[in-house]
Design a protein that fits this description.
Blueprint lengths: L1 E3 L2 E9 L5 H9 L3 E2 L2 E2 L13 E7 L1 H10 L4 E5 H6 L4 E11 L6 E5 L8 E4 L5 H13 L5 E4 L4 H7 L2 E5 H9 L6 E4 H9 L3 E9 H6 L1 H19 L2 H9 L6 H10 E2 L4 H16 L12 H10 L7
Parallel strand pairs: 2-5, 2-6, 9-10, 9-11
Antiparallel strand pairs: 1-2, 3-4, 4-5, 6-13, 7-13, 7-14, 8-11, 8-12
Helix pairs in contact: 1-9, 4-7, 4-12, 10-11
Amino acid sequence: MRSGAGDMTVRIGHIRFLNCYPLYYGLERRGLLVGDRLVEGPDRPDGPSRPAIELVPGVPTDLNRWLTAGDLDLGLISSIAYARNHREMLLSRYVSISSFGAVDSIQLVSRLPLPEIRSVALTRQSATSVALLKTLFKLRFEQDVRYGDLEGPLADGLREYDAALVIGDQGLEALYFPEPGTTCHDLGALWKEWTGLPMVYAVWAAREEFARVNGRELIAVEQELVRCRDYGCERLPEVVESALDRYRFDRETLTRYFGLLHYGFTEEYQRGLLRFYELAHEAGELPEVPGLRFIDAFVGAEAGGVEGDML
């Protein structure tokens, strides 16, 4: 957060993957986005004044690091990053990036059958997908796997490893423009087959320190972002048409993809996230199983002097 001369700018981490495009579309079409900076409340034709918002783009692992370091105030981060820093973080109860089954953009690309995989090159862009894959191999498939970093193009990784984990737009490209002789395994589908639950890949999180000092402003920004999310999600055919000009995927692919994604964070999806944390802890990917602490409950507790709710 930066402030001066009576104004405030809330720094928000933004993932420039296709899965965030409905939110980005809402920001644009609601007249809030100017470059990577959102116009301040007094300049808007609708609604009351609110803090200015600055979008800070990056891949999920960048945003995880920046939010933890205090370089962001609010951001869409990997769900596993919240778990690893839950004592310093608060969640929005309204927004996630999730799926109930296949997600299309998180793919284990393999040149061998799944039971024969013994080495995997891992994307450096996602912490949740890496933890989920390791949990699946250890607990569900009971396979000993050697891991390394995916350096360079997918094809290069597959020359050294049996399989490679790719996410985001690269994951979609691996699915729809496959490397010869490879098979894609969708991690969202593997998770649902195993647990019968939704999988939550990313969450909106804020630093507790920021919320303690700027709770009212944080709630106002959170509400604005929810309105932008709803604007995009309620106009998915328009979002698809707009995305056609920016991405290499066709209309059918984009329509399917946005239909698979879930942007809310209902109790069912919260249960799915907690189950992921339990299994990741069992697999050694988390030191403990965190509770879910929410922004609005924390801000209300700070204002009213009572302890906030925890799921």
